[in-house]
Amino acid sequence: MKLAILTGGGDSPGMNSFLRAVVRSALYLKPETSVWGVLDGWKGAIQNKYRKLDRLDVAGISTTGGTILGTQRVPNLETSRDLQESIALNLHDNHFDYLFVCGGNGSLAAANTVNEIIKERGYKTRILFVPGSIDNDVCNNYGSSIGFYSALDKSLEMLDWIRDTASAHRRVYLIKSMGAASAYLAVYSGIAAGAEHMIQPGEDIDFEKMATMIEQRDRDTRIIIAEAFDKSILEVRSILEEIFRRRNIEREIRTVDMSYFQRGGKTAVTDILRASWVAYKMVKDAMFNNVDSGFYTAFYTGQPPTVLPLNQAINPETSHSGIPEEIIELALALR
User: Fold this and answer.
1) Which CATH class name applies to 151-264?
2) Which fold has domain 2-147+267-318?
3) Is 135 a catalytic residue?
4) Would the pTM of this model clear 0.90, i.e. be above it?
């Protein structure tokens, strides 16, 4: 059996854990298997760039962030039929039985399109996909994405640092969080860190009420702003500062963009375990159950993954972008 592994889109923490588990599980279950890494994600699949992987090639990488294979975005892959067909043909010509993909929504869409071309042409390669995204927005009705909890760990650490300075100087900190169109990273990190407010995309903010909340606090105030909110962090600062001047509220406002740090660093234990578990199950299914292409959920370690057809997994109904109301109520209760 010949397997390929591709880490697509962003470099979500846990990709190396997934990669290590696929390689070692495959060689443990069937030592004659050859495993190849696709270099630089979908770009490497287009350019036919692969690297053969052995046990030692993946030693010591499970806790590291990023991906040892590299990952580069291909903006026109979504619309270019030629590029999509070249990937399908390259997989076929290299005699890959399975392509294992860990990535976000863009990679899922690419995987589904390539899989359809493979079926149309009667090629043999099948594609098994697992969600890897700090945004937690990939088919999230069925579980959370690998990398989400690692990004939360980094966020919590940074928010604790910011609180130390904010409290000492009695400052207000506006903090930008990654998350694309989803507010999961902003809201969950705010709940964990005890932030005073988390602004979601599309939220209608009463800035006068927010200013009152800030005025009533004795010391620090941390407000986390999700990436896709319709006002920039500087616009929010300007609005609040105008209200402060008008109402003689003596609070200094500082801004921090923690986006650059949320993706990097060590992978959280829960992401390592979940990535390892789902990779092992995917390899077993490929080797002993001859499964068709599919999307594997990454939920609890030890729990059999739910497997969806790729064309079902990309359906918008498999995901929600808003935070469940009970989670919002929890955040309000803990404020």
Assistant:
1) alpha beta
2) Rossmann fold (3.40.50)
3) yes
4) yes
